Amino acid sequence: MHVELVDETGKVTAPIIEQTKKLLAFAADYIKLPESKEMAVSFIDNKRSHELNLEYRDTDRPTDVISLEYKPDEEEFFFDEEMEIPDELMAEMDPFIGELYISIDKASEQAEDYGHSLEREYGWLCVHGFLHINGYDHYTEEEEKEMFSLQEEILTAYGLTR
Predict the structure, then answer these.
(1) 2-158 is classed in which CATH architecture?
(2) φ, ψ for residue 103 (rounded to 5)?
(3) I need a labelling partner for 93 at 20 to 30 A (CA). Which of 37, 50, 55, 119 fits?
(4) What is the annotated role of this protein in its UniProt record (predicted)?
(5) Binding site, residues?
(6) Secondary structure of residue 82 in the 3-state scheme
């Protein structure tokens, strides 16, 4: 999987950027995502997180990670109106799956609050957002159990434990 990384803050260390790339590739392999998939990750500050959270989620506060899942639009590919295109084919035709915005301010705060390393917090946010853009959610107790269990499985298998 190809990951485009942008540090809008200029404060993210090279090891965190490298960990993010490797962890996302690992997570993609773990859930058997095709290698052709692409995504973007931007490291931002709380001010930018607040702006994006308001714009995309109508929530007037900063948050730790914003996940924007991308779903291809059949109209982009100029198919005959009567053709029905299977979701699998659409997914192959457009490899971009989405983007994550990770607040470095929230990551620092939460690492301290939870008593674990900054590397662990960035990894947790990265995998959490990645699972969201791949269809996982935690609105119900059942969904939460599935998503958080998978998230912990991936982090543990990668070697990023508490």
Answers:
(1) 3-Layer(aba) Sandwich (3.40)
(2) -80, 120
(3) 55
(4) Single strand-specific metallo-endoribonuclease involved in late-stage 70S ribosome quality control and in maturation of the 3' terminus of the 16S rRNA.
(5) 128, 132, 138
(6) coil
